[in-house]
Amino acid sequence: MAELNILVCVKQVPDPEGPTSAFEVDSAARKVTPKGIPPVLSPFDENALEAAIRVKEAAGGSITMLSVGNNLSKAVMLKALASGADRLVTVDDPSCDHEGLDAFATASLLAAAVRKAGPFDLILTGRQAADTNAGQVGLGLAQLLGIPAVSVAGKVEVTDGTARVETMLPDGYEVVEASLPLLVTVSHEVGDLRYPSLMAIRKAKNLPMETLKPADLGMEPRSLVINEITELAAPNRERRCRMVEGESPEDAGAKLAALLKEDKII
């Protein structure tokens, strides 16, 4: 078999470990704005990259990282590239702001970028993004490319042009075998992305990097959007505290039970 060409789709998101207080809901603009939260790769995409590196170590080949977005952080991409990828392709443009694109538009841009950067034998994505948790782009990309897909993988192996994938179930896993080309969405069970050494990060600066614009793909991202956010608001949370007193702990407990029953909580 010829050299295995692996592509990993990654998304830059605000660090999901940031405090919820740092995220501001702008109802008028219908978007969520993070304040002081650094960008990172979506954790599930890190799992996908780790799975790709393990396939490369076992079966050989090369890894191309692909990302679509606006104002992508070079430091974030360089660190991921240094973990074990060989090439980086980005589609970076203000019109590719993730808040302005839906899953279909994002998958369409990725599909066009894949066709331009390809061909590829194995495409790996995270099972879902850490900011939207929609889990639609990976399978949508497979549909647009006309290739089969396997979702929620905990392990990926490739031997003689056939992929063996362990897909995660609520009570275990099942094994699926499929011929290449194939797209696989990867879950956290694969394991965390290895941390690159300082030397690897320095060497990564000399790896091939290509930046594209939507026009290079013959696409206008906003024209691809088929879903519209009509309203966005933070949930209205009300807290009420009522003190239940009694002549004794038993009396207070009985009164509390009566109130809970009255409110149909018990």
Could you explain the architecture of this structure?
- This protein is an alpha/beta fold and 266 residues long.
- The protein has two domains: 5-224, Rossmann fold (3-Layer(aba) Sandwich), CATH 3.40.50; 239-266.
- Helices cover 27% and strands 28% of the residues.
- The protein is built from six helices and 13 strands.
- Strands 11-10-9-12-8-1-6-7-13 form a nine-stranded mixed sheet, sandwiched between helices. The protein has a two-stranded antiparallel ribbon with strand order 2-5. It has a two-stranded antiparallel ribbon with strand order 3-4.
- Strand 6 (62-69), helix 2 (74-82) and strand 7 form a beta-alpha-beta unit.
- The longest helix is centred in the N-terminal third of the chain and has 17 residues, at 43-59.
- It is globular and about 80 Å long.
- The mean pLDDT is 92.
The average pLDDT value, as a whole number, equals: 92
Going across the major beta sheet, what is the strand order? 11-10-9-12-8-1-6-7-13
Q: Give me the Rg, rounded.
A: 23 Å
| CATH fold-level name of the largest domain | Rossmann fold
Largest sheet, in brief, is: 9 strands, mixed
Summarize the helix and strand pattern as letters.
EEEEEHEHEHEHEEEEHEH
Q: How does the overall form come out from the CA principal axes?
A: globular
Number of β-strand runs: 13
- List the domain count as a whole number: 2
Distance between the termini: 65 Å
Q: Can you name the CATH architecture of the largest domain?
A: 3-Layer(aba) Sandwich
Number of helices: 6
